[in-house]
Amino acid sequence: MSGAERLYTPELLALTLRLAEYPWNEAFPLKGSARSKSCGSTLSIAAETDRTGAIAGLGMKIQACAVGQASAAIFANEAKGRDLAAIGRTLDQMTHWLAGEGPLPEWPGFSAIEPARAFPGRHGAMLLPWQAALAALSSTQPSD
């Protein structure tokens, strides 16, 4: 089995189709973007939060490889109800996991992109959704 076959599994490729469920929504007040230094992939997130600061709505624009797209779908599928602290913890877990210094992050669906850990050139794309979400949630919320 080639490296591409190990990386681009049917499960990973199926995740990329889920992104259609999270179209960009200009009306969402919080926006953030991230860019991978290793591959140039980009991801922008538009979000709205509930009164506790947890994500209540999410839209994305993404230009990334299938691994980055699958990572974005994994993020989006479980982002509702997560706040800045939870997303920051997961990003920290991901960073350690990708460096071989920790277990698989505690976020449902990560097993689909687990093979990408062996491809350092894809690590930046895998982190994009969490980085963009942190940027969005850290932006100034409009006052009511």
Question: How would you summarize the topology of this molecule?
Answer:
Blueprint: H1 3-7, H2 10-17, E1 30-35, E2 42-49, E3 55-63, H3 66-79, H4 84-98, H5 123-138
Antiparallel strand pairs: 1-2, 2-3
Helix pairs in contact: 2-3, 3-5, 4-5
Keywords, separated by commas or semicolons:
Sufe protein. Chain: A, 3 strands, globular, 3-stranded antiparallel beta sheet, 144 residues, alpha+beta
What's a quick, concise take on this entry?
The chain is built from five helices and three strands; from the N terminus they run H-H-E-E-E-H-H-H. The protein has 144 residues and is an alpha+beta fold.
Task: Walk me through this protein's architecture.
By secondary structure, the protein is of the alpha+beta class. It has one domain (3-138): Sufe protein. Chain: A (Alpha-Beta Complex). Helix content is 40%, strand content 16%. The protein is built from 5 helices and 3 strands. A 3-stranded antiparallel sheet has the order 1-2-3. A hairpin with a 6-residue loop joins β1 and β2 (42-49). α2 (10-17) crosses α3 (66-79). The chain is globular. The mean pLDDT is 91.
**Which structural category do the helix and sheet elements fall into?**
alpha+beta
CATH class type: Alpha Beta
CATH architectural label: Alpha-Beta Complex
* Order of strands across the main sheet: 1-2-3
Q: What's the oligomerization state?
A: single chain
| H/E series | HHEEEHHH
Number of helices: 5
**Basic shape:** globular
The percent of residues in helical segments reads 40-55%
Characterize the biggest β-sheet: 3 strands, antiparallel
Q: What distance separates the N and C termini?
A: 55 Å
- Count of β-strands: 3
Radius of gyration: 15 Å
Count of folded domains: 1
CATH topology: Sufe protein. Chain: A
- Flag low-confidence runs: none
DSSP strand content = 15-25%
Integer average pLDDT: 91
